[in-house]
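Help needed: design a sequence for this.
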């Protein structure tokens, strides 16, 4: 039967059923994983750990594999949680959180709370219950790390594991630097702030010349390889040619053509100097894109592209925010900079851009997420103190 012809109530029931089947399947997988790990069967494949075997044979990332292994090892000692999980009453998200703090003495009460709350409620409750010992604090220090991987759509996910105190310092710094922009999700603005903080992108108030991000820090060179099929970063993921051109505007980018005879360096694009960036910051207090008033870190865009002979000189540079700089390149917008520094922007078809472009035009609206499965939550807020008291824990 075509899904489009199914009644909404039927769709809802099927989604809930699939979620329950998924929980049952995950419970079975973890039971099998526990026995597999107990036998150290992964060693027969010359793997260093169960995580490596899971990554190889099951396609799991290291973090996901480690978390499943942790829960698999915890469940045999938690029969009540294990039974609810196996019966499809508790989702993987809830079980994953419960196993962080549950004991044989409190697991029955923990399950009762989990059944009447969402996965988010369980996460908050577990966070309030956790007590960190000196041994755990030392473990946090020893296990700090930074990892990254390329996602299916070409974007890159960066994962940083930090001791709690350092992590909260980073989070607070990012939150303080995050600027709310109308039409932009808070999480997107926070990501932009994080990049600005790490890369030192500033407003060009430094002194002297050089390839700098404006905060006085030398900007690292980026090498992009191009061929007939597209472009990619050296030792990195693929990248749209338009984004490579964008990077060439405001950062030191070396473009390398991969030919049959070998790599050939085409040009070494020089970023605007700190003095030029400082001039742009003083002349234009905010982004010059129509309707945008972003006054934070910015990119210096070449009106005439560097590859087409455009010079890195003030008459050819405009101030654009991070987002609109990429919009200009991705959608081939046509910019005209007049002697009085007024900027005209047109779509490729000649239609003028006289206002900020709605981000929905570029399909970056966040997707809708279904509700968490299971439980008997009726929409009321979590009373954390009451929940902790019910569990016999002082707040």
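Sure. Designed sequence:
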């Amino acid at each position: 039967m075509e899904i489009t012809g199914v009644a909404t109530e039927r769709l809802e029931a099927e989604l809930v059923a699939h979620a329950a089947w998924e929980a049952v399947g995950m419970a079975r997988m973890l039971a099998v994983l526990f026995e597999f790990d107990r036998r150290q069967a992964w060693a027969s494949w010359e793997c260093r750990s169960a995580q490596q075997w899971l990554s190889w044979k099951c396609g799991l990332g290291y973090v996901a594999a480690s978390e499943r292994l942790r829960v698999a090892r915890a469940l045999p000692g938690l029969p009540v949680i294990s039974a609810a999980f196996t019966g499809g009453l508790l989702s993987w998200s809830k079980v994953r959180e419960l196993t962080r703090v549950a004991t044989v003495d409190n697991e029955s009460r923990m399950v009762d709370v989990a059944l009447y709350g969402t996965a988010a409620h369980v996460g908050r409750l577990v966070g309030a219950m956790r007590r960190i010992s000196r041994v755990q604090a030392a473990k946090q220090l020893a296990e700090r790390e930074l990892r990254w991987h390329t996602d299916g759509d070409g974007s890159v996910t960066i994962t940083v594991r930090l001791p709690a105190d350092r992590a909260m310092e980073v989070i607070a710094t990012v939150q303080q630097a995050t600027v709310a922009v109308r039409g932009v999700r808070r999480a997107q603005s926070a990501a932009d702030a994080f990049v600005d903080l790490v890369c030192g992108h500033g407003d060009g108030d430094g002194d002297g010349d050089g390839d700098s991000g404006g905060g006085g820090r030398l900007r690292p060179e980026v090498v992009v390889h191009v061929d007939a099929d597209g472009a990619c970063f050296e030792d990195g993921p693929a990248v749209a040619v338009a984004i490579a051109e964008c990077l060439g505007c405001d950062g030191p980018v070396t473009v390398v053509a991969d030919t049959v005879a070998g790599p050939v360096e085409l040009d070494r694009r020089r970023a605007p100097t700190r003095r030029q960036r400082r001039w742009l910051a003083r002349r234009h207090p905010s982004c010059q894109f129509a309707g945008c008033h972003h006054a934070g870190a910015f990119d210096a865009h070449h009106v005439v592209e560097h590859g087409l002979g455009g010079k890195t000189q003030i008459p050819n540079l405009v101030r654009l925010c991070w987002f609109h700089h990429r919009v200009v390149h991705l959608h081939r917008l046509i910019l005209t900079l007049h002697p009085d520094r007024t900027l005209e922007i047109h779509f490729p078809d000649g239609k003028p851009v006289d206002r900020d472009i709605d981000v929905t035009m570029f399909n970056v609206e966040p997707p809708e997420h279904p509700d968490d499965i299971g439980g008997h939550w009726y929409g009321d807020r979590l009373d954390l103190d009451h929940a902790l008291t019910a569990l016999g824990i002082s707040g």
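Residues 8-38 form the longest helix (31 residues).
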